[in-house]
């Protein structure tokens, strides 16, 4: 193709641009934010100051497109943590079994964004503007910009404008139906604070701690601690509804002291704060089912949060964006119509959506409609989760789901289900 246009300079947009470099003579990236020339936040990533961790498949896919990226992040201060030796996961204060394999990569989001921009932007044409509409009819040929100008002659337009995407409105303006949408109202809030860290300091003899307070606990949520370079700790605590954390540093300390994993109390008692408490609110998970749109124009595809945005406590954002870019690459190689891309996209979204919403729908305050099969899904999920606390094989497969290497449905093998049944029978 001669020209491809990407709307949005998010990680999803940058990854799409990286893929399109191999297919288009020119890639135009349209982004309204003034992109920083260093690892700094920008308005388009309001959650950038919160805790982020790069899951296993995300590490692998980014390394494929950007060889040496992990080494560059480590050189910039990212601390890679080995499960068991450096990092542990807890459920209501009880440690999960250690599973060998993927390392934990907690990172500062603006740092990752900057490194990807440094690799992508020199090879694309960056246009500081905002897309407000499409050009063309049954085949999209470009975009209209807020400045009043246009970018035409496009063989492909990619919407990477995030969960607030206006693609449905753009389609309606051209006479096409928008995609059906599904929302799960979460009312999630999380707060993050930095603490001073001495060289080689560990908390409860660990570097990274992931503490899940399950839906059956008094205060469901997730809390995380990890090093942010050699001299800082980053700590995030989340809660739902009336239990959302605030910016009050005394409240943040009190929450750390109440956390069932011991490392949080150790952090509050031994380390000094290194900045204010920053909060972020995530009202709902959202998916747009483009595969259900019967009349969709060619030459147009969405990626990233413009397709689906999940509960962030599961860390699926960056890996999902990378998987969407992989689907884009595989689809372009086939020459199929847009339906071929949406077919691939559905498999990716279904897996991530099931991982997050099966647990989210267990939360007592979530009022979203449950599918007819949900009681069965919940029973199986709860039993597998229980077995993963004691059985090595189930724990290994559970970790592969968390790291997005397999789908939740891939857990339903005779071996896993048999061991799950045994663990359930032994349960007090």
TrEMBL record:
Family annotation (SUPFAM superfamilies): FAD/NAD(P)-binding domain
Domain of life of the source: Bacteria
Name under which the protein is recorded: Dehydrogenase (Flavoprotein)
Organism: Actinokineospora diospyrosa
């Amino acid at each position: 193709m001669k020209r491809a246009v990407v709307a949005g300079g998010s990680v999803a947009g940058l990854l799409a641009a990286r893929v399109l470099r191999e297919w288009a003579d020119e890639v135009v990236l349209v982004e309204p934010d003034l992109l920083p020339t260093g690892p700094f936040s920008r308005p388009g990533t309001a959650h950038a100051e919160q805790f982020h961790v790069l899951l296993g498949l995300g590490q692998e896919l980014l390394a494929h497109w950007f060889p040496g990226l992990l080494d560059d992040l480590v050189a910039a201060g990212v601390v890679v943590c080995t499960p068991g030796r450096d990092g542990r996961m807890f459920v209501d204060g009880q440690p999960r079994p250690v599973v060998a394999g993927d390392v934990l990569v907690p990172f500062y989001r603006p740092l990752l964004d900057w490194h990807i921009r440094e690799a992508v932007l020199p090879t694309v044409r960056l246009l500081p503007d905002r897309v407000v509409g499409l050009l063309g009819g049954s085949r999209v040929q470009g975009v209209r910009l807020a400045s009043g100008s246009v970018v035409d002659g496009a063989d492909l337009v990619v919407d990477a404008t995030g969960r607030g995407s206006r693609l449905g409105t753009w389609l309606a303006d051209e006479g096409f139906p928008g995609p059906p949408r599904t929302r799960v109202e979460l009312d999630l809030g999380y707060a993050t604070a930095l603490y001073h860290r001495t060289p080689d300091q560990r908390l409860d003899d660990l570097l990274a701690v992931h503490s899940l307070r399950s839906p059956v606990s008094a205060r469901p949520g997730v809390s995380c601690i990890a090093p942010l370079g050699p001299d800082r700790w980053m700590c995030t605590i989340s809660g739902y509804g009336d239990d959302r954390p605030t910016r009050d540093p005394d409240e943040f300390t009190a929450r750390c002291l109440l956390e069932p994993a011991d490392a949080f109390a150790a952090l509050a008692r031994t380390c000094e704060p290194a900045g204010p408490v920053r909060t972020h609110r995530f009202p709902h998970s959202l998916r747009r089912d483009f595969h259900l749109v019967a009349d969709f124009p060619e030459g147009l595809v969405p990626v990233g949060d413009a397709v689906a945005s999940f509960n962030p406590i599961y860390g699926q954002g960056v890996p999902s964006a990378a998987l969407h870019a992989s689907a884009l690459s595989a689809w372009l190689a086939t020459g199929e119509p847009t339906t071929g891309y949406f077919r691939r996209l559905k498999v990716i979204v279904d897996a991530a959506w099931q991982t997050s919403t099966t647990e989210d729908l267990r939360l007592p305050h979530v009022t979203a409609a449950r599918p007819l099969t949900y009681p069965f899904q919940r029973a199986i999920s709860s039993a597998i989760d229980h077995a993963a606390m004691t059985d090595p094989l189930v724990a290994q497969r559970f970790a592969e789901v968390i790291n997005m290497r397999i789908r939740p449905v891939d857990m339903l093998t005779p071996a896993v289900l048999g061991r799950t049944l045994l663990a359930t029978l032994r349960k007090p």
